[in-house]
Amino acid sequence: MTDMMTRIANLTSETMAEIWPEAEGLPAAAELRGLLAVPPDPAMGDYAFPCFRLAKALRTAPPKIAEALCQGWKHTETASVQPVNGYMNFFLNRENFARETMEELTEKGGSFGASDLGAGKTVCLDYSSINIAKRFHIGHLSTTVLGNSLKRIYDFLGYRTVGINHLGDWGTQFGKMICAYKRWGDRETVEKGGVDEMTRLYVRFGVEAKKDPSLEDEGRAWFKRIEDGDPEAMEIFRWFKDVTLKDAMRVYDILDVHFDSYAGESFYNDKMGPVIEELREKKLLTQSEGAWVVDLSEDKMPPCLILKKDGATLYATRDLAAAKYRHDTYHFDKCLYVVAYQQDLHFRQIFRVLEKMDYPWAKDCVHVAFGMVSLGGESLSTRDGVIVYLDDLLNQAILKARTIIEEKSPGLENKDEIARQIGVGAVVYTTLSNNRIKDIDYPCTKTPYEDEDGTPRVRYEIDWEKALNFDGETGPYVQYTHARCCSVARKAEELSLPAPDWSALTDDEAQSLLRLMSRFPDVIRETAEKYEPSMITRAVTDIAQAFNKYYYEHRILDGDPAQAAARVALTKSTAAVIKTGLHLIGIEAPERM
User: Fold this and answer.
1) What string of H, E and C letters represents the secondary structure of 57-115?
2) 473-584 placed in CATH 3.90.1150.10
3) How many CB atoms lie within 10 A of CB 289?
4) Which of 50, 128, 496, 539 is deepest in the core (most CB within 10 A)?
């Protein structure tokens, strides 16, 4: 079934063509679709088309155009029409709309909204991109859940997706880590302490290097051994990565996030040379103060730094090599970089350099920017302690959910599992409920203290009560609505219901719910086009609110059995759409709460 707004736009376009066959400059059906609106007052119709856009082409006043369109309207099986002050107002044939929508919802169930739109096409997604030897913190939350949601959405639309965790695993800091490990660490302690122990060693290196600057040279020497492929250095380096990923996997498992590739910065160490050589051959490299750059002044951007004075490569060098490798390997139709907006200039430079290298696929590389995370108005900083680790955030959310379950549903089975689903859902929903470019500032308390050497510090702790809101428009609210639908469906199984009488779904509440669900496939496609999962979050919340209004206004299982069957079918379809929507943003849908 074509969604109702598209159908009305198509029929209106046909009507215009019949009335004014010789007219030029009339909007096509696709443009008409964008002009349709929902009137603020339901008494004015289900949809409205403003005719002002046609006045110039037809040289006629909008009220006259609306009257002509309404007089020429033949499609009363879809909607009746009425001209009002230059608007063409549509009143749906409610029973036909209910029957057509419910038949498709019932037939497709959990696959409602899925399509083969992306058949034969590949989308690469670069997201999460954690740093080796550092704990997973809330600064990585947005990129992780945004990327995960987009991957699920493209999968749902039939694309082949490649999820890439571009690990931060290159730089002199790893030489310093090895130096610290060789001097003060041991394998058993690191295996037991994981990333926390590696962080402790790295911090100690910084303290000791202030006393003995020669340690900096020792750290650089170890990194040089990594660059040269020294067996001992590489064994420790790879082990550090394994320990970090083992730690990170705990968080990924909680979030149900998966990747197809963990090729990080170090993976491209032997792939940068050919790119640099190609830049030279195409006469794109110029020397600037001893460094080698690609001049982007004609694009009103600073030069893109490719090689430092000492010949060292940079992020840009590796990202160019990564883009080329991904295209050559996966033959992507689109490559998304889910990275904070602070890196906007970096990606504009990278994409422009790829264009100057004459790669036509450069236009298919997209920076999916998102806002920054802060604590109490302050930017995150591991060094200054302005940080909250992601597993702590998730565990606190799960604990709070468990407490609420004990208070409100003490007899519930599988409390721990449902608490995990609700707690994680609350965190993910909060992250994906607003436009992705919006900054997120977690409320927190700041407690002064002194570290081991007497240095004044500040401890930042999230105000969990404020940060993890379970009331109002939240993940738990939508999950509870799904559980409510499932509860009604279970009770309906005890009844012997006949075929549904769709005339039972012509009331305002049912029609509002049906309109929202009929548009859901369109929302999914639009989300993929705009890389904006918050659109699905908003849609599934609206559906939950519409169902709850319906639930309170109508006794679903009572009355005429055929009409009850229609209300039950609507309830089951609502559960299916909510479950799909939650899945697409990375949230589970409990059947009991």
Assistant:
1) HHCCCHHHHHHHHHHHCCCCCCEEEEEECCEEEEEECHHHHHHHHHHHHHHHHHHCCCC
2) no
3) 6
4) 128
User: 524: how many CB neighbours lie within 10 A of its CB?
Assistant: 24
Listed residue (201, 110, 166) closest to 326, CA to CA: 166
Is beta strand 304-307 parallel, antiparallel or unpaired with respect to 291-294? antiparallel
Q: How do 365-370 and 334-340 pair as beta strands?
A: parallel
- pLDDT of 287-338, one tens digit each? 998 899 999 999 999 999 999 888 888 899 999 999 999 999 999 999 999 9
Helix (H, G, I), strand (E, B) or coil at 381: strand
- DSSP class per residue in 153-176: HHHHTT-EEEEE---B--SHHHHH
Are 150 and 338 a contacting pair, CB within 8 Å? yes
pTM, entire model = 0.92
432 φ/ψ angles, rounded to the nearest 5 degrees: -105, 10
CB-based contacts of 521-528 (< 8 A; 24+ apart in sequence): 521/3, 521/112, 521/113, 521/115, 522/3, 522/5, 522/6, 523/113, 524/113, 524/153, 524/156, 524/157, 524/584, 525/115, 525/117, 525/157, 527/153, 527/584, 528/117, 528/150, 528/153, 528/154, 528/157
Count other C-beta atoms under 10 Å from residue 229's C-beta: 10
CA 414 to centroid of chain Cα atoms: 29
State how far the Cα of 198 lies from the Cα of 215, in Å rounded to an integer.
Answer: 17
Class of domain 4-92: alpha beta
- Euclidean distance between CA atoms 474 and 429, whole angstroms: 7
Domain ranges of the chain: 4-92, 473-584
Task: For the chain, give percent helix, strand, coil, nearest 5.
Answer: 60, 15, 30
Q: How many angstroms from the chain centroid is the CA of residue 385? A: 28
Q: Could you report the per-residue pLDDT of 268-295, keeping only the tens digit for each?
A: 999 999 999 999 999 999 999 889 999 9
pLDDT band at 1 (very low <50, low <70, confident <90, very high): low
CA-to-CA distance for 586 and 426, rounded, in angstroms? 11
* Residue 244, helix vs strand vs coil: helix
* DSSP reduced 3-state for 302: coil
| The pair of three-digit structure tokens given for residue 577, joined into one six-digit string | 């759409």
Quote the CA–CA distance of 338 and 141 in Å, as a whole number. 11
Torsion of CA 187, 192, 194, 200, to 10 degrees: -80
Query: Which of 423, 437, 435, 432 lies closest to 469, judged by CA?
Result: 423
- What integer pLDDT is reported at residue 378 of this predicted model? 81
- Name the CA dihedral angle for 20, 25, 27, 28, rounded to a multiple of 10 degrees: 80
Q: What is the mean pLDDT of the chain?
A: 92
DSSP 28: P
Cα–Cα distances in Å, from 126 out to 161, 162, 192, 215, 572? 11, 9, 30, 35, 36
369: β partners: 339
Q: Would strands 160-164 and 122-126 be described as parallel, antiparallel, or unpaired?
A: parallel
Assess contact for 102 and 500: CB atoms under 8 A. yes
Sequence-ordered list of residues with C-beta below 8 angstroms from that of 395, at least 6 positions apart, any chain: none
Cβ–Cβ < 8 Å for 51, 69: yes
**C-alpha distances in angstroms, 230 versus 180, 190, 237, 298?**
18, 21, 10, 43
